[in-house]
């Protein structure tokens, strides 16, 4: 079997995603954008069960999927989908001294991600996740 195309082009597609997220957020660097993306993914993951997180990871592009599952402690207590402001603070808490995520960070990553995935498959998975999951990624 040949290597799947999404794996063959993972780096190129990830760079395109980062550029899109950077431009949407107004951040200056790839590193700042990576931290914002990682923070958004971790904030979302904290609000899912392990089974739901695995289901969600399955619709992500390979490198974004790797960021989503990296440094995961499945024993961490599950947070709830609360108000947007508290979830944004959760994103901004990652590497606080080196995190420049704007107040629009979740929206910026959501819009960039949706531009680089199969949105129908993404929305299908979100519909099967707990209340609040689809709203988190709504653009």
TrEMBL record:
InterPro entries: DUF2267, DUF2267_sf
Taxonomic superkingdom: Bacteria
Record protein name field: DUF2267 domain-containing protein
Matching Gene3D superfamilies: Uncharacterized conserved protein DUF2267 (1.10.490.110)
Organism listed in the record: Methylocystis rosea
């Amino acid at each position: 079997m040949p290597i799947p195309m999404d794996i063959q082009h993972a780096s190129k597609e990830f760079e395109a995603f980062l550029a899109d997220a950077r431009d949407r957020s107004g951040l200056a660097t790839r590193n700042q954008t990576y931290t914002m993306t990682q923070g958004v993914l971790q904030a979302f993951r904290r609000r899912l069960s392990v089974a739901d997180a695995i289901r969600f990871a399955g619709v992500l592009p390979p490198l974004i999927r790797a960021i989503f599952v990296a440094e995961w402690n499945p024993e961490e207590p599950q947070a709830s989908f609360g108000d947007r402001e508290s979830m944004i603070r959760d994103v901004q808490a990652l590497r606080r001294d080196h995190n420049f995520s704007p107040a629009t960070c979740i929206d910026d990553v959501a819009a960039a991600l949706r531009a680089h995935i199969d949105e129908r498959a993404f929305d299908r998975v979100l519909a099967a996740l707990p209340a609040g999951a689809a709203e988190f990624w709504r653009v």
